[in-house]
Amino acid sequence: MRALFIGGTGIISASVSQLAVNRGWNLTLLTRSGKSEFAPEAAHFLKGDIRDEAATAALLRNTHFDVVADFIAFGVPDLERDWRLFRDCTKQFIYISTASAYQKPSSHYLVNEETPLGNPFWQYSRDKIAGEEYLMERYLKESFPVTIVRPSHTYCERKVPVAIHGKKGSWQTLKRMLDHKPVLIHGDGTSFWTMTHSSDFAKGFVGLMGNPHSIGEAVQITSDESMTWNQIYGILADALDVPLEAIHVSSDFLSACSTYDLRGTLLGDKANTLIFDNTKIKRLVPDFHATVGMRDGLTEAVHYMRTHPECQTEDAEFDTWCDQVIAALETATRAVQVSFNIRG
After folding, report:
1. Coil, strand or helix: which one is 273?
2. Closest CA to 204 of 282, 115, 92
3. pTM for this entry
4. How much is the pLDDT for 327?
5. Distance between CA atoms of 23 and 185, rounded to whole angstroms?
6. DSSP E strands: which ranges in the chain?
């Protein structure tokens, strides 16, 4: 069985690539940089930029695949290109959408593939929704063999997942903990969140590859385990062997005060309690089961980042912003206390 991945070396896709090879797939990775240290040795590599459609068409001339998966496609223009490139040379095209496409604000904490799509807070999610609609139209009108996959918050040992971070990733949040500085947690920290280790996501994804029952279907792949954000940050602090000093801040306030896209990533995603009903993926892939618990997975990710200096990218801008938010809250609290003679 032959598969082509566009990408295949990222947070999600590297684990999928490795498992696909382990299960006997003849895997080719098309990337701009060619071979990557995060890709399986047994994979074949093509160096090229999918955004250059003519060059990609020439590179893939006379090739046929059982599965093509584009891990870097976002909106409709990307998928129009993919349809032109792959409509006659694959038996299945897998589009990686997102669980943030589900309606926000959420009308129910439990979501499945029948939950309506709609996210007024995040353009990223709206682009993914439009991509799904385009591909399903191609499936219905042209029999284009599409499968849509909706991951939620998926991570690996190279990326510690946090709710709020700057432009340079999550390390600065860990550094604040190590420096015994308070960290920001949105709301009161009691909303539930689901995180899925990339090795578990890969089991579901590879199980859908070449699976005839998945054609024309949208399928979410997540863990069944959820925790509150207070619990999540508590695990990170335990892994760092430091006490957790948390400052809880309204999601609306954080969004209004931030130059980062917190309106999308918080109001349109992480500020909502979402529990996933994974009945469909378990029906389509009977052996799918997430086995990496959140405590173990998060602890492993913290250890990896602490022992790999290349992952420790400091972010002075984000650090200063956190301090400014905390100072503003303290100033507001003191002003109210003085106005109403409240003893602190």
Report:
1. coil
2. 282
3. 0.94
4. 95
5. 40
6. 2-6, 26-31, 44-47, 67-70, 93-96, 110-111, 146-151, 153-155, 183-186, 192-197, 218-221, 226-228, 246-249, 275-276
Residue 205's contacts (CB-CB under 8 Å, 6 or more residues apart) are 16, 19, 94, 149, 221
What span, in angstroms and rounded, lies between the C-alpha atoms of 246 and 165? Answer: 15
pLDDT tens-place string over residues 311-331 = 999 999 999 999 999 999 999
Residues 239-259: what's their mean pLDDT?
95
Residue with tokens 């999308």: 264
Helix, strand and coil in the chain, % to nearest 5: 45, 20, 40
Taking each continuous run of H as one helix and of E as one strand, the counts in the chain are 12, 14
Q: How far apart are CA 263 and CA 182, in angstroms?
A: 22
* Distance from C-alpha of 193 to C-alpha of 180, rounded to nearest angstrom: 25
β-strand partners of 220: 150
Alpha carbons 209 and 205: distance in angstroms, whole number: 7
pLDDT band of 341, cuts 50, 70, 90: confident
Q: Whole-number mean pLDDT of the chain?
A: 95
Helices 198-208 and 13-22, packing angle to 10 deg: 60
Over residues 234-238, the mean pLDDT reads 98
Please report, for the chain, the start and end positions of each structural domain, with discontinuous segments joined by +. Answer: 92-327
**Spatial distance between the Cα atoms of 200 and 222, rounded to a whole number of angstroms:** 8
SS3 call for 48: coil
Chain centre to alpha carbon of residue 72: 12
Q: Which residues contact 168 (CB under 8 A, 6 or more apart)?
A: 313, 314, 315, 318
> Residue-wise over 98-128: b if at least 16 C-beta within 10 A, else e?
bbbbbebeeeeeebebebebebebbebbbbb
For residue 82, the SS3 value is helix
Q: Can you tell me which residue has the tokens 């060619």?
A: 34
Query: What is the pairing mode between strands 226-228 and 192-197?
Result: antiparallel
pLDDT of residue 333: 87
The per-residue pLDDT for 38 is 77
Confidence of residue 344 (pLDDT cuts 50, 70, 90): low
Query: Top-level CATH class of 92-327?
Result: alpha beta
